[in-house]
Amino acid sequence: MPPENPNQPNPAPLPTAPLAYENSDFLDSPDGRSLRILAEYNEPMARFRRERIQDTVVFFGSARFRALDVASHELELLDNTGSVAPAPESEQPARDPEETSELRHKRAEAAVEMARYYEDARSLARLMTEWSKSLPGRRHRFVITSGGGPGIMEAANRGAWEAGGKTIGLNIMLPFEQQPNPYITPALNFNFHYFFMRKYWFAYLAKALVVFPGGFGTLDEMFELLTLDQTHKLSKPITIVIYGSSYWKNVVNLEMLADKGAIAVKDLDLFQFADTPEEAFAILKEGLTRNHLDAEASRSDPWSPGAPVPEGPAPSAQELLGPDIAQTRPEAGSRK
Question: What is the CATH number of domain 56-66+116-302?
């Protein structure tokens, strides 16, 4: 034992070490990445269960247009997909008929077209929600889901909100300022860091997909779901509607892929085109009924009895499974 040094001061008291799950330095570090990924799986799952969500209908489409006055086809072009900042004035749709910029004239023509698609997405989401609300069961069926931003995403959430239904927004953190649209059900407003976790939740609950005109993000999401369906990686049938045939047939020639042998001819049956909300709704209703509602009725699915969806949040796993799952004793100021 070393001799005591009378001139050496006693060490200062140490502060209490943070709990591991409250240690932001660790959670935000590369070592905490696996926990962050797991959180983007478990936290949405807990909320979907609490809100009694069984499955979804996903809307994809452009997020670069913000509705200013949809009735008069007045839209503002955003600087980036989902951004709250507008694009430069030189790229905005022309509002003055005397405007001479060719780009602004093209933007004005596109604004009229995109305003129509905005209204169509809004109408289709309203039709879908009015129908799905009439379906009996212990969970909400075919809940309208979008990426949570402006443009077509806002239109989808807005139509569902106007019909009085729950509606989901799966937003993503991006390097520029953004915000969720106001029509998302607050308890179903999500924000993801990892693109692949956001895509997982788009695909995991979806029983149908509607692809409205859009850009890189829309193409990416559409082809990912088509590939999963083509390769039979989805565990359930999915109805895919590509909305706006004139737009999409100018953007990508899917028939050419089949003609050149890049895809099988039968792969063209994985999707259907639609050009009106009523046409798209008929395709969705027929596909969802045939692939899911009729199948559930034939096997007496326990989640689809005749009773309406109960009011209030669903019980937690602990409440369902009983007292055998014990809570840890809460310390002062800590989580349970």
Answer: 3.40.50.450
